[in-house]
Design goal:
Protein name: Putative Zn-dependent protease
Structural class: mainly alpha
Largest sheet: 3 strands, mixed
Keywords: Hydrolase, Membrane, Protease, Transmembrane, Transmembrane helix
Organism: Caldibacillus debilis GB1
Helix content: over 70%
Shape: elongated
Number of domains: 1
GO molecular function: peptidase activity
Number of strands: 3
Strand order of the largest sheet: 1-3-2
Length: about 230
Amino acid sequence: MFFHPMDILIFIAFGISLWAQFKVRGNFQRWSGVEASSGYTGAETARRILDQNGLYDVPVEVVPGTLTDHYDPISRTVRLSEPVYYGRSIAAVSVAAHEVGHAVQHKEAYGALVLRHRMFPIVNFTSGIAPFLLLTGFLLKQFSLLGLGILFFSFAVAFQLITLPVEFNASARAKNFILAEGLIRNEEERGVNKVLGAAAWTYVAAALISVFELINFILLFLQGNNEEN
């Protein structure tokens, strides 16, 4: 069976994504069993860093599940999963600090985050229509629809790429916060890097998959146009 080179790259990216998800869960579980020397919970960590950055009005809430942690920019709320909110582990401190990193980005109007927020309504619309346009264009050989689908899909790809500096910056802030506040010791930094580093790879893999898929669609579009002409 013959595989197109782009198909192979997409498969590789999917493989990286599966590996990254496995590493995220594995590292979170591993470092959830190691208590941080400060004895702080994830909730206490988040509250302390928020207050240190003047974000007294940003609440910290608990949400059900595992690895469901996020910062909600609309309500300006840090939401932590139960193992992070109540946990006193290196993993809990690391994840909590990462989500606070997004809150601080929001306060400082960090460029990539601002752009990401502005793009979200557009991406929310175009990503819902793009699959229909792409499928219809392929099946009916309507290359104008296919081209429009590619254009709409490109917004989702751009969104994925913009997410990378947002996430890497939040992780860098997280490490600086918890070291500066003495919430972990230098010898515990390895655990922080493992937890946050694995999470970063999930975003890298998602971006790779999107980019390779976009290139594949463009190549098919160009090939179809050449055959038609």
